[in-house]
Design a protein that fits this description.
The complex is a heterodimer. Chain A is an alpha+beta fold. Chain A has helices spanning 2-7, 9-42, 72-106, 110-124, 128-142, 173-195, 201-218, 242-268, 272-280, 285-315, 327-338, 341-370, and strands at residues 150-153, 156-159, 162-165, 167-169, 223-225, 228-230, 233-235, 238-240. Chain A has a domain at 72-166 and 226-370: MetI-like fold. The longest helix of chain A has 35 residues, at 72-106. Chain A starts with a helix and ends in a 5-residue tail after the last helix. Chain B is mostly helical. Chain B has a domain at 147-360: MetI-like (MetI-like fold, Orthogonal Bundle). The longest helix of chain B is centred in the C-terminal third of the chain and has 35 residues, at 326-360. Classes of the chains: A alpha+beta, B mainly alpha.
């Protein structure tokens, strides 16, 4: 009886699973017990009430307004805001650059594709943190002081204080033009979504024309706000700190190399027969690309592209090496200031886990939508 | 009915490949001419960098002040190479980390050919890694003891990469098998662990290991900083390797396992001798890719204060005698990483070709 039980697959599976669960539970209990004794022995108070205490440390730059009199909770929010801002900007710029590099490699011009290939190989084989530190070192030690700032293009100044750019002053008419443009895009997208036809060109053109008409009627164009050297520093314009500039340059160049490889791989994975069939039907190169190759390539490109975007979000934590205050740096500072290590790290982990999980859920939904329906 | 016999068709040679002359490729039409000009413009824009790195550079000097002319200061790298490569390891003992680098290189060279892979090679790797750790640490046979807080530079980078991948691999196999299991408990546990670690940035995992680990272990269990970062890297490597291996397991025909079951081969032997060898062979390129990612990831340990090559380089550049040569230091460190990673990817390409040829013949 016992013998048959011992050799029964079902009994064995049950025993194995019970043992596994029991072992895990014991491990967790052991760790929790250790933590509690250690915390008691060191007299550390745990709990999240420190979040409402004033933080009393500065954050050098942020998208959300911050003052050192604000609470720890708000400091975390400011860190998250910076992380989201840097991630979104990197993803946008790196996608554009990556697409351009993939194009450069596939255009059939040997010089350009060799250049693009060298760029991709270099970027992919050096650690991101070394690249970030390199750009930061370049921005802080190799650039001249503000008085002798490099001026490669009119209105663009490179100095130890970072990069100063002309800014578009979004006032009055310019805002109206932007609103008109947004309305045009929305109308075009909606038309395409619900009527299933129509290009983006004419609604956009109409919106632009309306905007120009407005400018003519009101007689004021959007103004450029140029940076000006006053004394030892610049006034006006758009100012990028060395930390932010180094972070963006490093992240965008690094990420674009990976994205360009993903795009190139996706397009090359489409069988040659698809091109030849398109040509046999008398389609032009552009038509083949748009209606045959890209829809199929997207199916291959999207999953690795998403995981690349996710790793980009995670890569922004390396900003703490160059001192840009994203979530990782804020967490490090809070731990130093308050000693609430467990809570701070838990917050950081929770933020990144929720970003990852929501992006994966979205991807699964999208994949199910574009996947081939197989009988 | 008579069958007319056709003479066999003579084999035709394929038409000669059309070769476009280079000039046509570069300046054939307006678009390619524009692209060529764009490429030339990019190269021109890079010339000042070349000027800085080569023509204006100071290659060797006795006096650090000659480096203040505006060119790259390679003399500094020459002067500090030992500090960057070995960190603050006692200088008179530098032959030990050098020997460790040599041993790792020799072991890597010895395991290049897939024909030699097997349990014996694994055992040799284990023994030689133990020997390397012993050699670095010392404290026997008259070798002075060097605590891990004084280890640094390239040996730390290499040891962290090799050890995290090596220790992580068996865990990764277990996690991958668990995720493919039909039983709910191992499947959920594996999915949870893998997705938890993959959802986190490595910086977060390093924070957990360096700040929280001492709190999670009983009083008196102390793991030094290097050990804690190794633990973090191992956990990280295991989660990423597990996903790669899972891909390989998915690619193995179900019939293989069923045939083994029909023959009465026990489960674990089926896994070890039949499933895993086929699964791993299928995922060699992504495995080497993960190896490259882990080599690059070791540079993050600098954040928690371990003196790997990057940390040692930063410490070297802080020497006030030289004019803050951070740029040169990072270029040198980046070059070292580049050489390691490009070697791995060239090897991967060669290996893929060899495996393909072998399975065709």
């Amino acid at each position: 009886m016992l013998r048959t039980l011992w050799y029964s697959t079902r009994v064995r599976n049950w025993l194995f699973q019970i043992a596994l669960l029991g072992g895990l539970a014991a491990l967790v209990a052991w760790i929790v017990g250790n933590t509690l004794t250690n915390l008691a022995a060191r007299g550390i108070r745990t709990g999240f009430e420190f979040l409402s205490r004033p933080a009393r440390f500065p954050i050098s730059e942020s998208v959300l307004a911050y003052d050192s009199a604000d609470t720890y909770g708000w400091a975390f929010a400011v860190g998250i805001g910076n992380t989201v801002f840097v991630s979104a900007l990197t993803i946008l710029l790196a996608s554009l650059l990556g697409f351009a590099v993939a194009l450069a490699r596939g255009m059939g011009n040997p010089l350009l594709s060799a250049l693009a290939g060298a760029y991709v190989t270099l970027m992919r084989n050096m650690p991101l943190i070394v690249q970030l530190l390199f750009w930061y070192a370049l921005a802080t030690t190799a650039f001249p002081p503000a008085r002798q700032a490099l001026n490669p293009l009119p209105g663009v100044y490179l100095s130890q204080r970072g990069i100063h750019l002309p800014a578009l002053a979004f006032e009055g008419t310019a805002v109206l033009v932007l609103i008109a443009l947004a309305a045009g895009v929305a109308a075009a997208l909606g038309r395409r979504r619900f009527l299933g036809r129509g290009g983006l060109l004419w609604p956009l053109g109409a919106a632009l024309a309306a905007g120009l008409l407005l400018i003519l009627l009101r007689g004021s164009a959007p103004e450029l706000d140029m940076p000006l050297l006053v004394g030892l520093n610049f006034r006006g314009g758009l100012h990028l700190t060395p930390e932010f500039a180094a972070l963006m340059i490093g992240l965008v160049l690094y990420t674009a190399a990976f994205i360009s490889e993903i795009i190139r791989g996706g397009i090359e994975a489409i069988a040659r027969g698809q091109w030849e069939a398109g040509r046999a039907l008398g389609l032009t190169r552009r038509q083949i690309l748009r209606h045959i190759i890209v829809p199929q390539a997207l199916r291959i490109i999207i999953p690795p592209l998403t995981s690349q975007y996710l790793s980009t979000v995670k890569n922004t934590t390396l900003a703490l090496a160059v001192g840009y205050p994203e979530l990782g740096l804020v967490v490090g500072t809070v731990i130093n200031q308050s000693g609430q290590a467990i809570e701070s790290i838990l917050i950081m982990l929770a933020v990144f886990l929720s970003i990852s999980v929501s992006v994966s859920l979205f991807m699964n939904w999208y994949n199910a939508r574009v996947a081939l329906v197989v009988r | 009915m008579s069958v007319t016999e056709h003479p066999p068709l003579a084999a035709r040679t394929p038409p000669a490949k059309a070769r476009t002359p280079l000039v046509r490729l570069l300046f054939g039409d307006v678009l390619s001419a524009l692209l060529t000009l764009l490429a030339l413009g990019l190269i021109l824009a890079l010339l000042p960098a070349l000027n800085w790195a080569v023509l204006d550079a100071v290659w060797s000097t006795e006096d650090p002040d000659t480096c203040r002319q505006g060119g790259a200061c390679w003399a500094y790298v020459q002067d500090k190479a030992r500090l960057i490569l070995f960190g603050i390891y006692p200088p008179e003992q530098h032959w030990r980390p050098l020997l460790v680098i040599g041993l790792i290189l020799a072991m890597v060279l010895a395991s290049l050919s897939p024909r030699l892979w097997g349990a014996r090679l694994l055992a040799i790797w284990g023994l030689s890694l133990l020997a390397m750790l012993g050699l670095m640490r010392g404290g026997f046979l008259g070798l002075p003891l060097v605590p891990t807080s004084q280890w640094g530079g390239l040996p730390v980078t290499l040891l962290l990469a090799v050890l995290s991948l090596g220790i992580g691999f068996p865990f990764a196999v277990a996690l991958a098998l668990g995720r493919r299991s039909a039983l709910p408990v191992p499947r959920l546990v594996s999915v949870g662990l893998i997705e938890l670690v993959r959802g986190l940035p490595l910086v977060g995992v390093l924070f957990v290991a360096s700040i929280l680990l001492p709190l999670l272990l009983p009083e008196g269990w102390t793991i030094d900083k290097l050990g804690r970062t190794l633990a973090a890297l191992t956990v990280f490597a295991a989660a990423y390797l597990a996903e790669v291996i899972r891909g390989g397991l998915q690619g193995v025909d179900k019939g293989q396992g069923e045939a083994a079951q029909a023959l009465g081969i026990p489960f674990w032997k089926t896994i070890w001798h039949i499933i895993l060898p086929q699964a791993i062979q299928k995922v060699i390129p992504p495995l080497t890719n993960t190896a490259i990612i882990m080599v690059k990831n070791t540079s993050l340990v600098m954040i928690v204060g371990v003196f790997d090559m990057l940390g040692a380089g930063r410490a070297a550049a802080a020497d006030p005698a030289w004019p803050a040569p951070y740029t040169e230091t990072y270029l040198f460190v980046a070059l070292m990483y580049f050489l390691i990673c490009i070697a791995i990817s060239l090897y991967s390409r060669w290996l893929e070709q060899t495996v393909k040829n072998r399975s065709h013949s």
